[in-house]
Amino acid sequence: MKIIVISGSAHANGASTYLADRFIAGSTAAGHQVERYNVVDHQTNFVMVAENEDPIPQDDDGAQLLNKVVAADLVVLVTPVYYYAMSSLLKTVIDRFYEVNEELKQADKRIMMMATAYDSDEHVFDSMKINYRQLVNYLGWHDAGTVWDHGALTHPQIDQYGQQAYNLGARLRD
Predict the structure, then answer these.
(1) Per-residue pLDDT in tens (0 to 9) along the chain, 174 residues
(2) Please, are residues 124 and 89 in contact by the beta-carbon 8 Å criterion?
(3) Contact status, residue 44 vs residue 14, Cβ threshold 8 Å
(4) What sign does the dihedral 114-135-39-66 (CA atoms) show?
(5) Given the DSSP bridges, would you call strands 74-82 and 2-7 parallel, antiparallel or unpaired?
(6) Would you state the torsion angle of the CA atoms of residues 34, 45, 87, 11, taken in this order, to the nearest 10 degrees?
(7) Is the Cβ–Cβ distance between 43 and 77 less than 8 Å?
(8) Which of 23, 90, 155, 173 sits between 20 and 30 A of 17, alpha carbons compared?
Protein backbone atom coordinates (compact mmCIF):
# COMPACT_ATOMS: atom_id res chain seq x y z
CA MET A 1 0.00 0.00 0.00
CA LYS A 2 1.23 3.52 -0.81
CA ILE A 3 0.95 5.81 2.21
CA ILE A 4 1.57 9.54 2.54
CA VAL A 5 1.96 10.86 6.08
CA ILE A 6 1.36 14.62 6.17
CA SER A 7 2.69 16.16 9.35
CA GLY A 8 1.42 19.62 10.25
CA SER A 9 3.66 20.21 13.24
CA ALA A 10 6.21 22.99 13.52
CA HIS A 11 8.10 21.06 16.23
CA ALA A 12 10.73 18.67 14.91
CA ASN A 13 10.76 16.63 18.13
CA GLY A 14 7.23 17.19 19.38
CA ALA A 15 4.50 14.75 20.31
CA SER A 16 2.91 14.85 16.84
CA THR A 17 6.24 13.94 15.28
CA TYR A 18 6.50 11.06 17.73
CA LEU A 19 3.09 9.71 16.68
CA ALA A 20 4.03 10.02 13.00
CA ASP A 21 7.33 8.22 13.65
CA ARG A 22 5.58 5.38 15.48
CA PHE A 23 2.95 4.99 12.74
CA ILE A 24 5.64 4.96 10.05
CA ALA A 25 7.61 2.32 11.97
CA GLY A 26 4.53 0.09 12.23
CA SER A 27 3.43 0.47 8.62
CA THR A 28 6.97 0.01 7.30
CA ALA A 29 7.34 -3.16 9.39
CA ALA A 30 4.11 -4.39 7.76
CA GLY A 31 5.69 -3.91 4.32
CA HIS A 32 3.95 -0.75 3.18
CA GLN A 33 5.55 2.01 1.12
CA VAL A 34 5.49 5.14 3.28
CA GLU A 35 6.46 8.69 2.43
CA ARG A 36 6.45 11.53 4.92
CA TYR A 37 5.72 15.16 4.10
CA ASN A 38 6.55 17.62 6.88
CA VAL A 39 4.63 20.72 5.87
CA VAL A 40 6.99 23.01 7.80
CA ASP A 41 9.88 21.90 5.55
CA HIS A 42 8.10 22.98 2.35
CA GLN A 43 6.67 26.11 0.83
CA THR A 44 2.93 25.59 0.64
CA ASN A 45 0.88 28.63 -0.26
CA PHE A 46 -2.80 29.12 0.49
CA VAL A 47 -5.35 27.91 -2.03
CA MET A 48 -6.25 30.63 -4.51
CA VAL A 49 -9.41 30.51 -6.60
CA ALA A 50 -10.34 32.55 -9.68
CA GLU A 51 -13.75 34.16 -10.12
CA ASN A 52 -14.86 31.16 -12.20
CA GLU A 53 -13.98 28.87 -9.23
CA ASP A 54 -10.94 27.37 -10.97
CA PRO A 55 -7.87 27.01 -8.76
CA ILE A 56 -5.02 29.39 -9.50
CA PRO A 57 -1.73 27.46 -9.80
CA GLN A 58 0.81 28.35 -7.13
CA ASP A 59 4.59 28.51 -7.46
CA ASP A 60 5.38 26.33 -4.44
CA ASP A 61 5.76 22.70 -3.32
CA GLY A 62 1.99 22.14 -3.15
CA ALA A 63 1.67 20.52 -6.58
CA GLN A 64 4.34 17.98 -5.61
CA LEU A 65 2.38 17.07 -2.50
CA LEU A 66 -0.94 16.90 -4.35
CA ASN A 67 0.57 14.38 -6.78
CA LYS A 68 1.60 12.24 -3.80
CA VAL A 69 -1.89 12.50 -2.28
CA VAL A 70 -3.52 11.47 -5.57
CA ALA A 71 -1.15 8.49 -5.90
CA ALA A 72 -1.55 7.32 -2.28
CA ASP A 73 -3.90 4.59 -1.10
CA LEU A 74 -3.87 6.02 2.45
CA VAL A 75 -3.50 9.64 3.56
CA VAL A 76 -2.45 10.10 7.20
CA LEU A 77 -2.97 13.54 8.73
CA VAL A 78 -0.91 14.33 11.83
CA THR A 79 -1.26 17.56 13.80
CA PRO A 80 -1.01 19.23 17.16
CA VAL A 81 -4.14 20.95 18.41
CA TYR A 82 -4.07 24.74 18.46
CA TYR A 83 -7.16 26.44 19.85
CA TYR A 84 -9.28 23.29 19.40
CA ALA A 85 -8.40 22.82 15.73
CA MET A 86 -5.69 21.36 13.52
CA SER A 87 -2.58 23.43 12.89
CA SER A 88 -2.74 26.08 10.18
CA LEU A 89 0.10 24.24 8.45
CA LEU A 90 -2.06 21.16 7.98
CA LYS A 91 -5.23 23.13 7.20
CA THR A 92 -3.41 24.97 4.41
CA VAL A 93 -2.49 21.64 2.82
CA ILE A 94 -6.02 20.28 3.12
CA ASP A 95 -7.39 23.46 1.54
CA ARG A 96 -5.04 22.85 -1.39
CA PHE A 97 -6.87 19.54 -2.03
CA TYR A 98 -9.36 21.81 -3.84
CA GLU A 99 -6.96 21.88 -6.81
CA VAL A 100 -7.53 18.16 -7.41
CA ASN A 101 -10.93 17.97 -5.73
CA GLU A 102 -12.77 15.92 -8.37
CA GLU A 103 -9.87 13.49 -8.69
CA LEU A 104 -9.76 12.97 -4.93
CA LYS A 105 -13.52 12.62 -4.52
CA GLN A 106 -13.63 9.87 -7.17
CA ALA A 107 -10.78 7.92 -5.59
CA ASP A 108 -11.13 4.86 -3.39
CA LYS A 109 -8.82 6.00 -0.59
CA ARG A 110 -8.39 5.58 3.12
CA ILE A 111 -7.62 8.33 5.59
CA MET A 112 -6.39 8.56 9.19
CA MET A 113 -6.07 11.39 11.69
CA MET A 114 -3.61 11.56 14.55
CA ALA A 115 -3.66 14.57 16.84
CA THR A 116 -1.88 15.62 19.99
CA ALA A 117 -2.90 18.08 22.67
CA TYR A 118 -1.09 19.28 25.76
CA ASP A 119 -4.48 19.65 27.43
CA SER A 120 -5.68 16.43 29.06
CA ASP A 121 -9.36 17.48 28.86
CA GLU A 122 -11.19 14.81 26.88
CA HIS A 123 -13.19 17.52 25.05
CA VAL A 124 -10.13 19.21 23.54
CA PHE A 125 -10.64 17.18 20.32
CA ASP A 126 -14.43 17.60 19.97
CA SER A 127 -14.35 20.13 17.14
CA MET A 128 -11.49 18.32 15.37
CA LYS A 129 -13.45 15.07 15.43
CA ILE A 130 -16.41 16.79 13.79
CA ASN A 131 -14.17 18.40 11.17
CA TYR A 132 -12.44 15.08 10.47
CA ARG A 133 -15.76 13.23 10.02
CA GLN A 134 -16.97 15.94 7.66
CA LEU A 135 -13.75 15.73 5.63
CA VAL A 136 -14.02 11.93 5.38
CA ASN A 137 -17.67 12.15 4.32
CA TYR A 138 -17.07 14.95 1.82
CA LEU A 139 -14.20 13.12 0.11
CA GLY A 140 -16.03 9.79 0.29
CA TRP A 141 -12.93 8.11 1.68
CA HIS A 142 -12.79 5.33 4.27
CA ASP A 143 -11.82 6.17 7.85
CA ALA A 144 -8.91 3.86 8.65
CA GLY A 145 -8.51 4.98 12.27
CA THR A 146 -7.58 7.79 14.62
CA VAL A 147 -5.32 8.52 17.55
CA TRP A 148 -6.34 11.34 19.90
CA ASP A 149 -3.39 11.95 22.25
CA HIS A 150 -4.59 13.81 25.37
CA GLY A 151 -1.85 15.21 27.61
CA ALA A 152 0.72 14.75 24.86
CA LEU A 153 3.74 15.82 26.86
CA THR A 154 3.21 13.49 29.80
CA HIS A 155 4.54 9.97 30.18
CA PRO A 156 3.56 7.15 30.07
CA GLN A 157 0.57 8.44 28.05
CA ILE A 158 2.77 9.41 25.10
CA ASP A 159 4.01 5.82 24.95
CA GLN A 160 0.44 4.52 25.09
CA TYR A 161 -0.61 6.70 22.14
CA GLY A 162 2.64 5.93 20.33
CA GLN A 163 1.79 2.24 20.62
CA GLN A 164 -1.69 2.94 19.22
CA ALA A 165 -0.11 4.71 16.24
CA TYR A 166 2.36 1.86 15.71
CA ASN A 167 -0.44 -0.72 15.87
CA LEU A 168 -2.56 1.22 13.35
CA GLY A 169 0.34 1.06 10.90
CA ALA A 170 1.28 -2.54 11.63
CA ARG A 171 -2.28 -3.84 11.19
CA LEU A 172 -2.94 -2.21 7.82
CA ARG A 173 -3.95 -4.56 5.04
CA ASP A 174 -3.94 -3.76 1.32
Answers:
(1) 999 999 999 988 888 999 999 999 999 999 999 999 999 999 999 999 999 999 998 999 999 999 999 999 999 999 999 999 999 999 999 999 999 999 999 899 999 999 999 888 879 999 999 999 999 999 999 999 999 998 776 655 668 899 999 999 999 988
(2) no
(3) no
(4) positive
(5) parallel
(6) 70
(7) no
(8) 173
